[in-house]
């Protein structure tokens, strides 16, 4: 009889209450080679306690070196293989190098992007240790803080492929969910000393809400973070199916919310990778039409992070489009016959849900000329504005890259879309100024000596004065190439045949 009662209870209890859930919570704060962080250890303690209340078997680890982090992940793998739900919650520094995300141990020494695989833990290694979980593999990254390692590598010009924040994961195996504290390439504050980070605070608040599907829970995290940190947009990558997964069954409400009583959620994205590719395509174009095509194609995903980012990008593109319009006085000068009261005609878009972006309105030569003007405004371009992309223009773009920490590349055959994208990126860098490059003064023309008369004896030239062999305070030779740009020991452009004095 007792066995029958136990079997009956098993049949009526929600499966989520019976699921085995394990979590590894890591807080890295005491960094040895950069300034320590204030909150990750405190965040790890708070998250561990909250997950334990929700029935997780929690392993907490703080201030891990590289070897300790590897060993901790290896030990946790055995728990994950036996669990239905396996989670890693990481608070600390993270970094993106060449499109790959890394967790940074406390003993990492990073002076070059090539140190990445030697000094840090790749995100793929973390996901691989969770691969045995049956229902959900979940990684939560509160690692999008302003990163001093990035600044150091940028200053030393050894981090051309290093990005701010973290990159989006474009693919992962099924039943995987990855939550970022900020959108791709963005950072979020660590928060005031003595308190939890804003993202961790929002995550803790969401865990205390009535039980709900993990995707709804993370939507509540996004809403709370957006309220406390204006402009912050956390991002969630999900390859979950239609089945609900609840990680907070023990919070305020005794039973999980029934799906039929809740508001109908937006249909799941059939192909997250395709949505990400479509977003990247619209972002590369940067036009209002491209963003509107994306938003129309994914109108049913209004709560998805990429949809929200696309709405913001469309507003920015609309503002840039308005700013590019000529002033009224310019319009009158250009078209004196056009009546002032003729209304603007809007041509409706005939593009499909995600058509190819419209071609740029300017020709390739006009775009090159505009690029030269933009680079000249920032002190990077030294030659005349001619619309020809040659060595001087390429050198100017290199100076801009050094000043802005970017890696923009163009050549004489670059297509108009790429030219327009680079121009838009440069024009958004209002505060960037290139280091001054001095022009070499033109040598004074020597006065022509008078021709000696036939009656005047020709004097022998005096021997040239010998310069001292060791002039302690002598200046380095000043050189210029045949185009007049100074180069040598005080910097500049090392192009052309040198003429020294």
Automatic annotation (TrEMBL):
InterPro entries: Caspase-like_dom_sf (IPR029030), Caspase-related_regulators (IPR052039), Pept_C14_caspase (IPR011600), Pept_C14_p20 (IPR001309)
Domain of life of the organism encoding this protein: Bacteria
Source species: Ruegeria marina
GO molecular function: cysteine-type endopeptidase activity
Biased composition (Polar residues): 327-337
Signal peptide positions (record): none
GO biological process: proteolysis
Region span, Disordered: 325-362, 439-487
Compositionally skewed regions (Low complexity) per UniProt: 439-469
Descriptive protein name: Caspase domain-containing protein
Alphabetical list of Pfam families matching this protein: Peptidase_C14
């Amino acid at each position: 009889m007792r066995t029958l009662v136990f079997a009956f209870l098993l049949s009526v209890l929600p499966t989520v209450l019976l699921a085995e859930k394990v979590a590894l919570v890591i807080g890295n704060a005491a960094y040895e080679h950069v300034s320590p962080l204030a909150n990750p250890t405190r965040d790890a303690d708070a998250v561990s306690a909250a997950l334990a209340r929700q029935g997780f078997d929690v392993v907490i680890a703080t201030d891990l070196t590289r070897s300790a982090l590897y060993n901790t992940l290896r030990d946790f793998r055995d728990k994950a293989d036996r669990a239905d739900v396996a989670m890693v919650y990481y608070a600390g520094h993270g970094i993106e190098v060449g499109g790959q995300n890394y967790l940074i141990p406390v003993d990492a020494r990073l002076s070059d992007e090539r140190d990445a695989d030697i000094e840090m833990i790749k995100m793929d290694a973390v996901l691989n240790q969770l691969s045995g979980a049956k229902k959900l593999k979940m990684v939560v990254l509160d690692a999008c803080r302003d990163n001093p390692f990035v600044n150091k590598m940028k200053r030393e010009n050894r981090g051309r492929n290093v990005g701010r924040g973290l990159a989006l994961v474009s693919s992962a195996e099924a039943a995987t969910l990855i939550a970022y504290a900020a959108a791709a390439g963005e950072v979020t504050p660590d928060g005031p000393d003595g308190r939890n980070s804003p993202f961790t605070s929002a995550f803790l608040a969401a865990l205390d809400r009535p039980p709900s599907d993990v995707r709804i829970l993370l939507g509540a995290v996004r809403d709370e973070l957006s309220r406390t940190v204006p402009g912050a947009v956390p991002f969630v990558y999900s390859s979950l199916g239609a089945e609900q997964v609840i990680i907070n069954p023990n919070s305020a409400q005794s039973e999980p919310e029934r799906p039929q009583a809740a508001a109908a959620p937006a249909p799941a994205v059939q192909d997250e990778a395709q949505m990400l590719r479509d977003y990247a395509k619209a972002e590369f174009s940067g036009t209002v039409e491209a963003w509107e095509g994306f938003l129309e194609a994914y109108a049913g995903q209004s709560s998805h992070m990429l949809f929200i980012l696309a709405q913001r990008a469309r507003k920015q593109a609309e503002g840039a489009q308005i700013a590019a319009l000529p002033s009224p006085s310019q319009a009158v000068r250009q078209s004196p016959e056009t009546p002032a009261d003729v209304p603007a005609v809007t041509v409706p878009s005939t593009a499909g849900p995600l058509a190819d972006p419209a071609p740029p309105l300017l020709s390739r030569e006009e775009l090159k000329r505009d690029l030269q003007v933009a680079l000249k405004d920032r002190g990077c371009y030294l030659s005349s504005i001619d619309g020809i992309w040659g060595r001087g223009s390429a050198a100017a773009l290199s100076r801009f890259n050094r000043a802005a920490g970017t890696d923009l590349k163009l050549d004489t055959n670059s297509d108009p879309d790429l030219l327009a994208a680079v121009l838009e990126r440069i024009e958004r860098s209002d505060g960037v100024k290139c280091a001054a490059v001095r022009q070499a003064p033109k040598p004074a023309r020597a006065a022509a000596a008078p021709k000696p008369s036939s009656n005047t004896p020709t004097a022998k030239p005096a021997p040239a004065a010998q310069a001292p062999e060791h002039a302690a305070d002598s200046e380095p030779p000043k050189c210029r190439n045949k185009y007049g740009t100074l180069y040598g020991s005080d910097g500049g452009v090392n192009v052309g045949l040198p003429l020294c004095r």
